[in-house]
Amino acid sequence: MIWKGFRFGMFLQIAVGPICLFIFHTAATSGFMAAETGVLGVVVIDGLYILAAIFGLGRILQNYPEMKRVIRYFGAAVLMLFGFSNIVGGLGVSFIPTLDFHAGQTIEIVFVKTLVLTLSNPLTILFWAGVLSTKLIEENLQQRDMYLFGLGAVLSTFLFLTIISILGTFLFLFLDPVVLKRLNIIVGIVLVAFGIRTAIKKM
């Protein structure tokens, strides 16, 4: 079941999202260790979301649509806030000090930022609730099997984002600081776009 979860998780990585972009950007501006700390933050939250799905919180969200709406707008706001911070940071303007994306971020700051970004999409619980429910019916899974499937999915996230960190580190080593500032702006624009899409997306 771990292997099945791993394969499924790697398939999901094809859809590059804001978290992947943030890890790549962190590696390019702050180095591998900072980015890998962010990867650990993602793995922690994803693991908690999968556990929450197994424990049935996804069903609660399905029964209360108004809660989903609030969570969706919260997630969109977080993405756009990070995006705007990135854009003005790339322009050399201080926006919100604790959210500034710049070279030399401490490991602690990167970890907190990644936790916040990953937490900005709690509706992930609904996705995993749907996936695990389908597996439960199709393959007659026991609860232990669901834990193992979830573990495999989390391991795939760790491996994929670690590879992204390595790729981003090459930019950190070879790119000019001016180019990295432009990367800040590009990443910021994409994060804002993700936030807008999240806000207007139909549930």
Can you summarize this structure?
This protein is an all-alpha fold.
Keywords:
203 residues; mainly alpha; 9 helices; 81% helix; 0% strand
What does this protein look like?
By secondary structure, this protein is an all-alpha fold. The chain has one domain (19-200). 81% of the residues lie in helices and 0% in strands. The protein contains 9 helices and no strands. Helix 2 packs antiparallel against helix 3 (32-54), helix 3 (32-54) packs across helix 7 and helix 4 crosses helix 7. The chain is globular. The two termini are 30 Å apart. Residues 95-103 have low confidence and may be disordered.
The residue ranges in which pLDDT falls below 50 over 5 or more consecutive positions are 95-103
Secondary-structure element series: HHHHHHHHH
Helix content: over 70%
Taking Cα atoms only, what radius of gyration do you get, to the nearest Å? 18 Å
Structural class: mainly alpha
Q: How does the major sheet shape up?
A: none
Strand content: under 5%
Q: Whole-Å distance between the termini?
A: 30 Å
The mean pLDDT is 75
Number of domains: 1
Q: Tally of extended strands?
A: 0
Determine the number of helices (DSSP H or I, runs of at least 4 residues): 9
- Shape descriptor reads globular
Please specify the SSE layout and strand pairing.
Blueprint: H1 2-12, H2 18-30, H3 32-54, H4 57-63, H5 65-90, H6 107-119, H7 124-139, H8 143-174, H9 177-200
